[in-house]
Amino acid sequence: MSPVQGASFELQAFAREPGLALTGELQFNAGLLRIDYELNGSLASLKIPAGPAGAGHRTDRLWEHTCFEFFVGLESQESYWEFNASPSGNWAAYRFASYRTGMREEAGISSLRVSRKGQAGVFGVELEARLQDIPEIQEHLLKPESKLLVGITAVLEKRDGKMSYWALTHPRAKPDFHDRAAFLIRLRKEGIVQ
């Protein structure tokens, strides 16, 4: 099947969350990944960081509050990357040597474009990442038929301080966004493999 440029997704809450839905659109072409998240429902129950006063900057531990994330792995390799974006505009990019080990900042990413949008009952965040700026990913995409494996996730902080974990799937008994079994989307240089 030929790759496509865009696809929609729906994230699942780890614990049932009546009144909330998290969906979105993914676009990929020649190493540029764009993800639009759309959160619908009881937004008043959530803590959503204020919008940026200026350009966001690299910030650690964004997952401790409302944060939109994605993970990218190389097919047939243990290494992978984690990208975090706060509605505040702040962002982070990390590289892992293998499952939850060898974490360090990804130097190939100097910024993530993070923007927010919203209307009554709907809140959205749009992320744009130049994956081709990471040499290992760029090299991997040049190989015929090679694929990137992508997991799309989010952490929502509630006003009562509880956290809600969202992903394409939850393969374990506890939320674990690093589990490769949750990297359900396949990308090739030409686009999304359906």
* Proportion in helices: under 10%
CATH class category name: Mainly Beta
Question: Average pLDDT value?
Answer: 93
| Named CATH architecture | Sandwich
Q: How many strands in all?
A: 14
Report on the biggest sheet: 14 strands, antiparallel
Helix-strand makeup class? mainly beta
Rounded to an integer, what's the Rg over CA atoms?
16 Å
Output the CATH topology. Answer: Immunoglobulin-like
- Which word captures the global form? globular
Task: Give the CA-CA distance, first to last residue.
Answer: 7 Å
Low-confidence stretches: none
Describe the structure.
The chain is mainly beta and 194 residues long. It has one domain: Immunoglobulin-like (Sandwich). Helices cover 4% and strands 47% of the residues. It has 1 helix and 14 strands. Strands 1, 2, 3, 4, 5, 6, 7, 8, 9, 10, 11, 12, 13 and 14 form a 14-stranded antiparallel beta sheet that branches. Strand 9 (113-119) and strand 10 (122-130) form a beta hairpin. It is globular, with a radius of gyration of 16 Å. The model has no long low-confidence stretch (mean pLDDT 93).
Strand and helix layout:
Elements (H helix, E strand, L loop, with lengths): L5 E8 L6 E10 L2 E10 L4 E2 L19 E8 L5 E6 L5 E6 L7 E2 L7 E7 L2 E9 L4 H8 L5 E11 L4 E5 L17 E4 L2 E3 L1
Antiparallel strand pairs: 1-2, 1-12, 2-3, 3-10, 4-11, 5-6, 5-11, 6-7, 7-8, 9-10, 11-12, 11-13, 13-14
Write out key terms for the chains shown:
Immunoglobulin-like; mainly beta; globular; 1 helix; 194 residues; 14-stranded antiparallel beta sheet
